[in-house]
Design goal:
Helices cover about 55% and strands about 5% of the residues. By secondary structure, it is mainly alpha-helical. The longest helix has about 35 residues. One of its GO terms (molecular function) is aspartate ammonia-lyase activity.
């Protein structure tokens, strides 16, 4: 069969792109309904390269079919990112409104396109967005897939079979005044706005969960550590409050990044010069996009620069990496603090989530912090990918935005899921091992530090040495040495004093 007229074999394409039942489900076409074309029926579509037979019931067309053939790489269709599919529909809807307003698209065509976009945004036809997330062409295949699906959804809704492009055309009508080079980056940024909003909400809930534990453990003394060695006392509440504070800082970085994603280049068309678009289009489509999303979108001041620039993606990636790595450090601390239960730190107890071993009965592992650690590793790796893809752009366009989009949307989704499972399945259920913490504090030489201003460094050193050798209670040693009364020493080593919550500002007399 010649390349200019071949039948598109969906089964063969799926064998190339799908290996698991879950992945296959993502590619499955809409279930045929009564009255639909019989199984195996096709329609013929033609482009500048030739003709291809497309499954008659498919809402995508020839350009999508070629992309499925060309990019059997990721085994993941763009529909794995619903935010991206919805963002594409919103951009097409805003474009239809703008084109109707400036008079370059018939009102009925704009209405049909809007109706189709609304259905996609409602969750219909996502299974028709089948091109792989990793693709050449700077996102052209994704844009073509969106154009074809929206056109065919509109056609079928108004009584025309798929492929009736003489009535409503994917490129002449759905893609009017647009180019992949302004549609795709705008849709990607919009998808990231949706995803980042969701992450910030989960991140804030996780922050609040740590804060609640900080309040719950406010009076629980423990031994602080530096370089994994015993340091001075603190409260367990201070430790968890510190976790909440660092998450708050990262949340602020995310909030500062969100407005950067609102700048768009719609109206730039191919390279930023606006060729094929009406001079009024850029401002008009931006206004409609603002109305549809609720975000304060602005048109970039320099559309040539904006069309080739990937700086905002590096900024977002850096913020995500920072947050992920700091969250991973917290998870490392949780695993250390809960280690044991007999031969480790054993200061806190994580909720038992599943059996930890197929050979060791009774073993329970810190699986929730572990999975968040792995999310952080993936986010850090994605940051390298985004950095290299941004650097690899050439001249008036960055051809590598598909891998940037995939990397960042995956990072956003994984971090959102990681924050949620860490909060629900771990942090909310943490308890303190009070007896062990009390024993460790009472025998810790770090407590002596609080007494140094009162008994002097030499006496404190002697007490510390004795405590290490005998493992006796520090308070008992001070009283036995007749350095101060029990009432006095207990006040000085109270939780408030040891943790710094109660400070001393006056001169301290040193005991001889």
């Amino acid at each position: 069969m010649s390349s200019s007229h071949k039948r598109y074999d969906m089964t063969q394409a799926m064998e190339l792109t799908v290996t698991t039942p879950a992945a296959s489900a993502e590619h499955t076409l809409n279930t045929p309904q009564p009255g639909d074309p019989v199984a195996g029926a096709t329609r013929l579509e033609t482009d500048s390269l030739g003709s291809v037979e497309i499954p008659a019931e498919a809402y995508w067309g020839i350009h999508t079919a070629r992309a499925i053939d060309n990019f059997p790489i990721s085994r993941r269709p763009i529909s794995v990112y619903p935010d991206l599919v919805n963002a594409l529909a919103i951009v097409k809807q805003a474009a239809a409104r703008a084109n109707r307003e400036i008079g370059v698209l018939d009102a009925w065509k704009a209405e049909w396109i809007e109706e189709a976009c609304e259905r996609v945004r409602a969750g219909e036809f996502h299974d028709q967005f089948v091109v792989g997330v990793i693709q050449g062409g700077a996102g052209t295949s994704t844009n073509m897939n969106a154009n074809e699906v929206i056109a065919n959804v509109a056609l079928v809704a108004h009584g025309h079979p798929q492929g009736s492009y003489d009535v409503l055309h994917p490129l002449d009508d759905v893609n009017r005044s647009q180019s992949t080079n302004d549609v795709y980056p705008t849709a990607v940024k919009l998808a990231m706005c949706f995803s980042l909003d969701r992450l910030m909400a989960e991140h804030a809930l996780l922050r609040d969960s740590f804060g609640a534990k900080g309040h719950e453990f406010a009076n629980v003394l423990k031994v602080g550590r530096t370089q994994l060695q015993d340091a001075v006392p603190m409260t367990l509440g201070q430790e968890f409050h510190g976790f909440a504070t660092t998450l708050t800082e990262d949340l602020e970085r995310m909030r500062h990044t969100l407005p950067l994603l609102w700048e768009i280049n719609l109206g730039a068309t191919a390279i930023g010069t606006g060729i094929t678009a009406d001079p009024a289009y850029a401002a008009t489509v931006c206004r409609h996009l603002r109305e549809l999303t609720g975000f304060e979108h602005v048109t970039a001041a320099d559309l040539v620069e904006a069309t080739s620039d990937a700086g905002v993606f590096m900024t977002l990636s850096g913020v995500l990496k920072r947050s992920a790595i700091k969250l991973s450090k917290i998870c490392n601390d949780l695993r250390l603090l809960s280690s044991g239960p007999q031969a480790g730190f054993g200061e806190i107890n994580l909720p038992p989530r599943q059996a930890g071993s197929s050979i060791m009965p009774g073993k329970v592992n810190p699986v929730i912090p572990e999975v968040v650690n792995q999310v952080a590793f993936a986010v850090a790796g994605a940051d390298v990918t985004v950095t290299m893809a941004a650097e690899g752009g050439q001249l008036q366009l960055n051809a590598f935005e598909p891998v940037i989009a995939h990397s960042l949307l995956q990072s956003l989704a994984w971090m959102t899921g990681g924050c949620r499972t860490l909060r629900i399945n771990c942090i909310d259920g943490i308890t303190a091992n009070l007896d062990r913490l009390d024993t460790m504090v009472s025998t810790s030489v770090g407590v002596v530090t609080a007494l140094t201003p009162y008994i002097g460094y030499a006496a404190a050193s002697a007490l510390a040495k004795t405590a290490l050798l005998t493992h006796r209670n520090i308070a008992d040693l001070v009283v036995d040495a007749e350095l101060m009364s029990r009432e006095r020493v207990m006040k000085l080593i109270s939780p408030a004093r040891l943790s710094g919550l109660e400070t001393i500002t006056s001169a301290i007399p040193v005991v001889d």
